[in-house]
Amino acid sequence: MPETYQIEMKNIQKSFGNIKSLRGVDLKLRPGEVLGLVGDNGAGKSTLMKTLSGVINPDEGEFHFEGKRVNIDSPKAAKNLNIETVFQDLSLCDTLDVASNMFLGREPIRFLGRLIDKKTLHTRAREELDKLGINISSTKLQVQNMSGGQRQAIAIARAMLFKPKVLVMDEPTAALGVKEVNMVLQLIKTVKEQGVSVVLITHRLQDLFEVCDRLMVLYEGKCIDDRPIDDFTLETLIKSIMGSPEGVKVS
Amino acid sequence: MANIKTNDNQTTTNRGLNFSWLWSEYSVVIAFIIIFIVAAFMNDRFLYLQNQLNILMQVSTIGIIALGMTVVMLSGGIDLSVGSVLAMAGVFSVLALNASESIFVGVLTALAVGAMAGLLNGILVSKGRIASFIATLGMMAGARSIALYVSDGGSKSAEVDGFMNISNSSLGMVDTPIIVFLGLTILIYILMQKTRFGRYVYALGSNEKAALLSAIRVDRIKIGVYTLCGFLVGIAALIETSRLNSISSSSSGNLYELDAIAAVIIGGTRMTGGKGKVIGTLFGVLLLGVLNNMMNLLNISPHLQGLVKGLIIIVAVLFQKRD
């Protein structure tokens, strides 16, 4: 019996005008696995993940979720499959408070489904922050005055709020201080412990060795390397990213 | 476990005891109170109940439009067409009223014309991806032109008894337009603060891309916003037309868009959207009303009143630029 993957993406292709961004990429993600997705700028990492979160629709390709063929043609479709994404720019609304950002688009409602249930909103936001060990004094604070690490934590908490099965994180540690990077890596481990499959995109290669189970290397829109993390050293990883993996048969 | 410290300055300040917080949230209320007190000292007649009710009556039309403008501006847009649409809705309302001899039809026409113009604005902005400034500029020219054409550039007077009663009736001492304005203020307040629609309007003005990625139907919200504004303009048109029993295709609603925008800005709503409050707009409207009234009581030349108003707008915004 073939292994059932949490997510299987087959032959994903996407062009923007004349530029072939993705030239038939396959991606498999096991339940509870943290997959590091690496590659140079323009290799297609973010584009590949945007197809998974429904922001970009691929020209070709299939998605299988828990063994079943699915269509992911909108952010809503991805969310319905419990695929959550933390985007590179975080996509927070600066003038809304912490809880409102976490629930944006999925507010609990009361009174014949007309009014937002603010009490539940804030209690549940608080519960989720506590569960992830994120220390933010009040869920009523506006996010615009918060530090990069706090904003990142809120974006992750928002993604975790609706019990995702797959969490995609695009450069969660970019532009963060050392302490904040450690906080985010801790957070990824916490998320993994809760049984969530994670895809992590990052340029900070040392982070990959901290949290990932497996690495996949994209080069000019193709997957050229896909191995367990233990098979990599920093050196061989860099060679792969440069486009010449050492003695690899791509699966 | 992951630990992050929150910004101390944001949390340790006790809300309510801190003046700077009070000022940044309620500067318009404080400014209103100051101007109110100044007006009361300048002229004894200012505090007369009749005078206060007059002020409310005078601001009710602009006030209703400003409510719609608040919603549009919170979403990050602007609606320049409100004055022209008011004239167009008024003209069609009177035409329908006279033709059908039914007040109900007249009322319905004003509301429908306003809402349709708003709907078209919304479609142009969302589906057509035209900047709101441009789309509503087009509507501004178009609606005025239609109003002028339909009424040959003149006024249209209602010929049905009872139509005047809409604006010229009262509940006790309070005129109907005031009740309508204050009632709508409460409704729009609830809409913006307590419902998902309101929350999404704020989100849209704050970060449109984030709203889109949160699976919010941004286009629908935008269309809703402009349609709501148009609908409110329809109500304002009804009040304006009924008050004088006629509407002028050339001068009714002229520069209303600027007064409405001024009230919204004085009320603390950010031009780029995402930040502001309906209550702020209410006080912005009242502030402009009190100012007008004070200048009239003090016999300030009408030619100079624009200057004073302009100064107040600039000063208000200068003081608000604190975030």
Low-confidence stretches of chain B: 1-16
> Which chain pair has the greatest contact?
A-B, 44 and 31 residues
Q: Over the alpha carbons, how many angstroms does the gyration radius of chain A reach?
A: 18 Å
Helix content bin of chain A: 25-40%
Apparent shape of chain B:
globular
**CATH T-level fold name of the domain at 7-95 and 164-242 in chain A:** Rossmann fold
Give the CA-CA distance, first to last residue of chain B. 33 Å
**Strand ordering within the main sheet of chain A:** 6-9-10-3-11-12
* Oligomeric organization of the protein chains: heterodimer
Low-confidence stretches of chain A: none
For the biggest β-sheet of chain B, the strand order reads: 1-4
Kindly provide the name of the CATH class of the domain at 7-95 and 164-242 in chain A: Alpha Beta
Mean pLDDT across residues of chain A: 85
Tell me the series of helices and strands of chain A, N- to C-terminal.
Answer: EEEHEEHEHEEHHEHEHEEH
Characterize the main sheet of chain A: 6 strands, mixed
Keywords (chain A): ATP-binding, Nucleotide-binding
Domain ABC transporter (chain A): 7-245
GO molecular function (chain A): ATP binding; ATP hydrolysis activity
InterPro entries (chain A): AAA+_ATPase, ABC_carbohydrate_import_ATPase, ABC_transporter-like_ATP-bd, ABC_transporter-like_CS, P-loop_NTPase
